[in-house]
Amino acid sequence: MERDAVDGVLLDCPWVPVCISGSQLLAKTWFGDTAYRILLTDLHSVWEEEMDTRAIQDRAQELNRRLRAPVHAFFSHMCEVAHPCLSGRVEDGGALQFSLNHHGGDINLKLKSELAGVPFYWEFRCTPAPVALVCSQLVRPLLLMSRLLQRQVGQLGALLARKDTELQDYRDNGAVLSRERLQTELFEEQSYRENFLTQTVPQVCARQGGLGFDSELQELYSAVTSYGNTNARKRKISERHAPEEDETTTEDRDPNHAASGTQPPGEEVNHGLDQGDRDRTTDSETPNEEKTTVPMATAADRPSARPKKKKAKGLFG
């Protein structure tokens, strides 16, 4: 699969919270037939690794000296044991050993399992991700999610205001609550916003250690990135077709190209003339054609004038 295609597939995968060796991380992974892509972040740094078939084969030989199987023979096993841990579905432990180590600016995930009764080792060696990748996979989607949530809050506030108006109309017409505990105060957006900033924000920030990318945020992230991927694919398709359309349009608009491509040699091309102009042009050109025909006929009669010259010679003689 091409790099752009892998980036697109990875973008559709949501960030999920994982815990490896006591470290809280957000991860997103993509496993192909014999290739994978992994992204990890602790919200201080972002790391990535991308491996194809050849690279996986070389690393497997490096870590498992006795391994002689082709990639497809052991890659499915690696996916079965690693993917659940990197998707937040299973905590590491038991027969599977998953550990995390920092090496300078890099991060290594070491995996130990059993394959056909023999220990199988693997390492995900992640290096710092480029800024462009961080922006496309994390920053831009999160900013778009923030704008969407802000709009949702505005729409909910407007809905509450309409509900308050509706309830007030019921009261004005004599409606009474059967249970007093259901009584609510009128919704005031400004006071609600102030209370939210002073009370809710500190509570959320205090629990930020858990990263808090829950299932609802994952669903929103997937919706945002899926829509962005669809638009990106449409733009690429239109960009591929744009040069062909421009070339066709240029050929259609170029009179020289049209004349050279369709008009036989020696014929004149008249552009922009209507039927009346063509008739007038034909009428004006007719006398010239007759004048041209007369000299040509005189020139053709010259052989019949030669006997006259012979008579002249006889007179001089």
From TrEMBL:
Q: Where in the cell is it found?
A: Nucleus
MF terms (GO), sorted A to Z: DNA end binding
Task: Tell me which residues make up the XLF-like N-terminal domain.
Answer: 14-127
Q: Does the keyword DNA damage apply?
A: yes
Q: Where is the composition biased (Basic residues)?
A: 305-317
Q: Which UniProt keywords apply?
A: DNA damage, DNA repair, DNA-binding, Nucleus
Task: List compositional bias (Basic and acidic residues) regions by residue number.
Answer: 268-292
Q: Which residue numbers delimit the XLF-like coiled-coil region domain?
A: 130-178
Disordered, as annotated region: 232-317
Q: Which GO terms describe its cellular component?
A: DNA ligase IV complex
Q: Name one GO biological process term.
A: double-strand break repair via nonhomologous end joining
The record's section on InterPro entries has: NHEJ_factor, XLF-like_CC, XLF-like_N, XRCC4-like_N_sf
Q: So what family is this one in?
A: Belongs to the XRCC4-XLF family. XLF subfamily.
Return the protein name: Non-homologous end-joining factor 1
Question: Could you tell me which species this protein originates from?
Answer: Oncorhynchus mykiss (Rainbow trout)
